[in-house]
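Review form for a predicted model. The reviewer records the input and the model, then writes brief findings.
Reviewer: anonymous (R2)
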Amino acid sequence: MELKNNTGAGTLRAFMVKKTALQKVCGCRKKNLGWLGLLAVLLLLGFLEVKNEGFRSSKIYFRSPDGDYSNHLEGLEKIFKQPFSYLGKGRQAFVFLSADGKYVVKFFNFHHFYYPGQISYPFLKDKTGRLKLTFSSYGLAFDRLREETGLLGLHLRQDGRFQKKLQVKGPLGQSFVIDLGRTYFVVQKKVEPLKSCFFRLKGQGQLEAGIEAFLQTVLTRLQKGIVDQDLDGVKNYGFLDGRAVNFDAGRFSFQELSQEALAKELGRSSRKLLRWLQKEGFQESGYLERRLAELAFQNR
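Model under review:
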């Protein structure tokens, strides 16, 4: 009888050991499933952030304590009667295109100009002065280079006078309304990107005319004493009605230029375009080189 009891006790202990081991395995599996679920959520959020190109309305709603800039809002009410859709982004702003395809509005991105709390951190890149330089640049462009930059309006001061809502679609097609008075933005004419325009002109045998239009726009800027710290003649330029337009006007400043300095700046402003033409194997790169030499000689 005692032997039977001992056998039963041993069987019970073995069962309890197996049960405990099974519980541990199940517990580990549940933990693993929990971590996998969390990882899946994080990956999904990361994917959506990439597809959304980092856009959130919180990035364009902010109030800057820096400076007091001018607003130029004439004619914008009519433009903003139509909806806009997300087009892309640059370092400084998120860009939306009007339904008729004629205009773009650029909303300035808080994260480019400030860290959270609008304070500086000693271990991070200093952003002090970014907004002042950018807003001053667009103000200068509006006053002196309106046609050359395609600018139609500026909202660089939140004074409560511009009470307008804008219907937009985000990068993922989501619809929402933007309170324009709480944002900083510029409005420009939509232009055809330089690359696509030059490929089209190449096919039409008119690429030299496009190069000449580019040079004239750069020369006009320099003759007005305005230098550009962002000298990407390929990415920052487009065309509208046969005219070259520098649509990225965020790095302009005024500077007195001698004739020699003007010729040098003209060459610097055209350098990336020349390299691109040579890379594409366009023989018209030689035309650009000749024209730069001629203009440098004329402005000695």
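Findings: The two ends are 119 Å apart (CA to CA).
Further findings: The chain has nine helices and 13 strands.
Recommendation: see findings above.
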